[in-house]
């Protein structure tokens, strides 16, 4: 029962992390300063196709999972297929978050920057929560890990930068080709790519110890924190 209870805690915290990420998308969209690199491709496809953002998130993330299977083949862990379920859940969370926030945005350009900074903080909290419970990576991070295994000389952080740059480039190309304008990718996208990592490092100082105490009370890390 103890292990089952801890697993439930991990799942709940994981889902909470997805909720924070979903609201980060809504704040970034409403700031009108550019969406995060991870969500730029689903957002661009949504603009081009007219489909719901949730549908595009699900489709793009499912493509990421398929690419992982192609790259890793027998090395692909069967339980990572559940990335589909979590990406689907995240897709619906993004629609819910956008519905809650509506078109709200603080007035003036300074207010837009404030919305963007809120988005960055929410991204950092969301990623910290769902990564620290050590369940299943989201499809984007799963794809980065897959590429890192195929190209072991390129470390995960560098591979993540390459992947984000390629994703943003594809998103920008789609907007230029089909909409004849750049939409979704702006200065906010660049600011996010520069600040998110630093904010994650800061918030993890508080989130990681709390997650360890709740989800892994018998781990060495949690024991040392209690001491």
Describe the model.
With 227 residues, this protein is mainly α. The protein has one domain. Helices cover 79% and strands 0% of the residues. Helix 1 (2-31) crosses helix 4, helix 3 (53-72) packs antiparallel against helix 4 (83-101) and helix 3 (53-72) packs parallel to helix 6 (139-150). The longest helix has 30 residues, at 2-31. The two termini are 26 Å apart. The model has no long low-confidence stretch (mean pLDDT 85).
Give a quick summary of the entry:
The chain has 227 residues and is mainly alpha-helical. It is 79% helix and 0% strand.
How much β-strand is present in the residues?
A: under 5%
**Proportion in helices:** over 70%
Rg measurement, Å: 18 Å
Overall mean pLDDT stands at 85
Compressed to H and E, one letter per element, the order equals HHHHHHHHH
For the record, give the distance between the C-alpha atoms at the N and C termini, rounded to a whole number. 26 Å
Largest sheet: none
Number of helices: 9
Please indicate the count of domains.
1
Shape: globular
Number of strands: 0
Report low-confidence residues grouped into runs of 5 or more: none
SS content category: mainly alpha
């Amino acid at each position: 029962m103890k292990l089952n209870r801890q697993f439930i805690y991990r799942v709940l915290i994981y889902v909470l992390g997805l909720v924070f990420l979903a609201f980060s998308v809504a704040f970034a969209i409403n700031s009108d300063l550019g969406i995060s690199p991870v969500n730029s491709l689903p957002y661009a496809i949504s603009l081009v196709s007219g489909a719901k953002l949730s549908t595009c998130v699900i489709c793009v993330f499912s493509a990421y999972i398929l690419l992982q299977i192609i790259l890793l083949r027998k090395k692909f862990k069967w339980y990572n297929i559940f990335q589909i379920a979590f990406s689907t859940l995240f897709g619906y969370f993004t629609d819910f978050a956008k519905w809650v926030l509506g078109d709200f945005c603080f007035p003036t350009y300074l207010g837009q920057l404030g919305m963007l900074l809120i988005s960055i903080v929410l991204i950092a909290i969301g990623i910290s929560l769902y990564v620290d419970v050590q369940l299943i990576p989201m499809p984007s991070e799963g794809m980065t890990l897959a590429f890192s295994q195929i190209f072991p000389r390129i470390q995960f952080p560098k591979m993540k930068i390459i992947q984000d740059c390629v994703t943003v480039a594809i998103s920008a190309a789609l907007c230029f080709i089909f909409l004849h304008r750049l939409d979704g990718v702006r200065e906010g996208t660049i600011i996010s790519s520069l600040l998110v990592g630093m904010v994650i490092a800061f918030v993890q100082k508080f989130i990681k110890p709390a997650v360890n105490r709740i989800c892994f009370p018998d781990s060495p890390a949690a024991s040392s924190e209690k001491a």
